[in-house]
Structures are given as structure tokens and as C-alpha cells.
Write a structure and sequence with these properties.
Layout (H helix, E strand, L loop, with lengths): L4 H15 L1 H4 L3 H21 L2 H23 L8 H15 L1 H4 L7 H15 L16 H14 L14 H17 L4 H22 L5
């Protein structure tokens, strides 16, 4: 072991890949369910766990990253390793924080977001829609929030009714009540929201045909 715990973890992953017959048979697709599970457990630790839980679950998610990188390093056609992943991440974060690394000024979170989006737009210039890069595998509520943000960028509004300001707890109560209503009426709340989000995505794409896409 060295004084570099991250390097030790990467080395342990490599040794396990070399000598563990179960690990040797795993590919990127096989790992997806484990990544989803470990990510969910990390969320639980953040929201309701102890500091020890948080440290452990962060480690489990890091192991998934190391696992994917080790698999990728052995690809015959296009290999990359954890150093390439870390290098690419560092370069991207430096580009997206010009107020930290390049002399730009951002005094408010809103100004930071403007700089972030500008840098991201340069990186993703090949994208033709604000929906490009939005994963359909996100949980439906998270996907709805994401797509609503994209809709605002192209001037598309949802048909949601205005409500008085709610606390987060009150919002949770209302969401749970809606799910209870769906269950009582035999509806699938998850499917209902996803189908509504798809309609909103269609509205966004129609709006983009009439004007250049926002970034």
C-alpha cells in the first residue's frame, strides 16, 4: 500500500479483475444494475444516513467508477483507463469554471451558471436540441424537472396551474396524495408522468423547428 489511497483502490480493482473469475465475466452493461443500486443507496445515505453511511456509500459508487474504467482499459479498439477519466474530468471542470481558473468574474450563483452554460455550449456545439443528452432513464420526477427546465429555454410553458407557495414537506404531501389518487383509480402514476413528459418533449421539438435551439 502507498500514501495514495485512490491509486491503491485502482490497483486493487486491477488485481481483482485479473484474478477473480466473477469479475472477469462482467462488462459495462452487466454493471448498470449495480450502479443504479449503489447510487440509490448513496442518496439514502445523504438524506437519512450517518456520516459513516455516507463515507461507505461514496466508496461503493467510486468502486463502480473504477470498475468501469478497468473494463474500458482492456478494450481492444478504444481503451482508456481511470487516469484518462480523471484527466478528462479535470480539463472539463477547469473549462467550466473560468471564474476560478481563467480570470472571469462571477459574483452570484446566476453569473456562475451563465459561464457554465456558455462553456458547455462550446463543448456540445454538435447538439441540435436542448433535449440532447437528457437521459430517458432518469426517474420520472427528476426527468420532469429536467425537461421543464429545457422547455423554459425555448419558451415552451407547461399547463400546470399556479399554486400558493409550498414548503418542501407540503409539496411531498401533495405528491403523495396524487399518487394515492392514481392508485385508487387504477392508474400507473409513473407511466402517467412519463407520458406527459413525452408530450412536453414533443412541444419542445416543435418549438425548436421554428427557432434556433437554445444552449
Amino acid at each position: 500500500m502507498t500514501n495514495d489511497p485512490l491509486r491503491d483502490a485502482a490497483r486493487a480493482m486491477r488485481d481483482i479483475r485479473d484474478r477473480c473469475v466473477w469479475t472477469q465475466g462482467i462488462d459495462h452493461r452487466d454493471l448498470v444494475p449495480y450502479l443504479i443500486e449503489e447510487s440509490a443507496e448513496l442518496v439514502d445515505a445523504v438524506e437519512a444516513g450517518t456520516r459513516a453511511d455516507l463515507r461507505e456509500e461514496l466508496g461503493d459508487v467510486l468502486w463502480q467508477v473504477l470498475f468501469h474504467a478497468e473494463i474500458a482499459s482492456r478494450d481492444v479498439d478504444d481503451p482508456f483507463d481511470i487516469d484518462d477519466v480523471a484527466r478528462g474530468l479535470t480539463e472539463k471542470m477547469v473549462r467550466r469554471h473560468p471564474h476560478v481558473f481563467a480570470g472571469e468574474t462571477a459574483r452570484t450563483p446566476e453569473e456562475v451558471l451563465v459561464l457554465w452554460n456558455a462553456a458547455k455550449a462550446l463543448e456540445k456545439h454538435e447538439r441540435r436540441s436542448v433535449l440532447d443528452g437528457v437521459s430517458s432513464h432518469m426517474p420520472s420526477l427528476a426527468l420532469a424537472q429536467k425537461v421543464l427546465g429545457k422547455a423554459a429555454q425555448v419558451g415552451v410553458s407547461s399547463d400546470g396551474s399556479d399554486t400558493a407557495p409550498l414548503s418542501e414537506a407540503q409539496l411531498g404531501d401533495e405528491l403523495l396524495a396524487l399518487v394515492a389518487t392514481a392508485k385508487a383509480q387504477g392508474f400507473d402514476a409513473e407511466r402517467a408522468l412519463r407520458e406527459r413528459v413525452r408530450q412536453l418533449e414533443d412541444d419542445i421539438r416543435r418549438a425548436e423547428l421554428k427557432a434556433p435551439p437554445a444552449t
